[in-house]
Amino acid sequence: MQHQTRNLLAVIRSVARRSAETSESVEEYAMHLDGRLTALARAQGALSSDPRARLDLHSLISDELLSYHAKEGEQVSLSGPRILLQPGAAATLGLAFHELATNAIKFGALTRDEGRISVSWKHADEPEPHLVITWREQHGPSVTPPKRKGFGMALFERMLPYELKAHAKLSFEPEGLRCTIEVPLSDRVIVDEGTA
Questions:
Q1: What angle do CA 59, 64, 68 make, to 5 degrees?
Q2: CA 106 to CA 116: how far, in whole Å?
């Protein structure tokens, strides 16, 4: 419990610091920090409902999108095997999905009724066992890379590699944003199904 609390506080400090570095006004900082802390609180709330402190990847993504009123089966499709995340991995990935969902509601697929988001994940074995998560937006407006690097880009370029040894690739394709996150499978990231 103490270890989890220290990890969570480290994530909160990092979020606060990086949000300040990438915000252009106090109002923008407050708005972004509030959204990011709410995303962390959602993940922590879900974790606290499980006495063994693990969170299903499907629930993490679904809850984040639902907070933007994007419902599975309507604008959202999710698919992949059951993956139980460790608390630290859930917090970091929860922030990544928050940034993707926020971007989708402001600039991407969720700005239009016909917009769609599909998120899929799978195990891959080469070169080492890892989890591949693909977020794909379609039928939204044409997207372009951001003019400045904000918190979201810092999260994908620095925080995911640092916290999870993950690699993320953002592709601004004509049909919509595509994000691929590759996370090495370790007991820091996922719960062994044999002990779940």
A1: 135
A2: 14
Under DSSP, the state recorded for 86 is P
CB 42 within 8 A of CB 64: yes
- Measured CA to CA, the distance from residue 57 to residue 60 in angstroms comes to 5
Residue 98 pairs with which residues in a beta bridge? Answer: none
For residue 171, the cross-strand partners are 178
Q: 72 is written with which tokens?
A: 């599975």
**Beta strands per DSSP E along 34-115:** 55-56, 76-79, 84-85
Please answer whether residues 183 and 130 qualify as being in contact, where contact means their C-beta atoms are separated by less than 8 angstroms.
yes
- Number of CB atoms found within 10 A of residue 182's CB: 17
Closest by CA position to 109, among listed 148, 60, 68: 68
| pLDDT one-digit tens code per residue, 39-51 | 766 666 655 555 4
Convert the pLDDT of each residue in 71-93 to its tens digit.
778 899 999 999 998 888 888 89
Q: 120 forms bridges with which residues in the sheet?
A: 79, 134
DSSP 1: -
pLDDT (0 to 100) of residue 48: 59
C-alpha neighbours within 13 Å on the C-beta side of residue 183 = 28
What CA–CA distance (Å, rounded) separates 85 from 124? 17
